[in-house]
Structure formats: C-alpha cells, structure tokens
Design brief:
Blueprint lengths: L10 H8 L2 E5 L8 H11 L3 E5 L5 E2 L2 E2 L13 E4 L7 H10 L3 E4 L6 H9 L3 E3 L4 H8 L2
Length: 139
Amino acid sequence: MTTPIGPNASPEETILRTCRTIAVVGLSSNPMKSSYGVAWYMQKHGYRIVPVNPNESEVLGEHAYARLEDIPFPVDLVDVFRRPELCLEPAEAAVRIGAKALWLQLGIENEAAMEVAREAGLLAVENRCLAIEHRHYMR
C-alpha cells in the first residue's frame, strides 16, 4: 500500500501515485534504448505501459500505437522520449486525449510543451527520469 499524497507533494510524486496507465511516446523495442529500460522498469512495478511509436507493432508484450489519438482507452500519463524540438505535438495530443499528466524524460526540456500542458490543467514534468523518480518517491 502506498502512502497517501500529502498537500505538499511534488508533481513527480503525485503523478507516480495517481497515474497507472502510461503511454510512452517513442518507446523502442531495442533493449539498449533508455525508453525500453524505463518502460520495462515501470511495467515491472505494476504500471500499464502503452507503446506509442509508428515504427513498432509490439513492445514489452503490449500492442504499439502510431499516435496517442489511436489508443482506444484512457491514458493517465504521457511519457515522452523525443528530441526537445519534437515535444510540442505530444503535449498537444496529451491534452486532446484527456491525459492527467505530461512527462518529458531526462535531458528533454520544452517550454512550449510545458505551457500547453499546464494551461490545460495537466501536471507537467520535464528533464526528469520516470524510473529514477519512482525509486526516490515509491520506496
């Protein structure tokens, strides 16, 4: 059982404790890629992983979708593994599909994407690794 979320919880902790279905934009089937390692780790810790990559058909035993809008069920978190200049589109798509949060992985920052997400009421995190933050907040 996890600890209840306190009033001073960070966006990272709130996302990790409330978002269970994670669409991973840019998830690769290559085990050497960081997207694969992070998604594998989160899947092993009970999160549902939804691969979003037009070049994949299946990753980690899950059907891959070409776009966020193609996912036929609700997504809580959109986790992005794309170059910074390509992050605005996933942020806008996260808003369109009704996601609760947007996460740009370690090394990825995009002010416009963060602004789109936050203005739509999504929790938004950039330049942080989901797996590292999970280890920190969920021990």
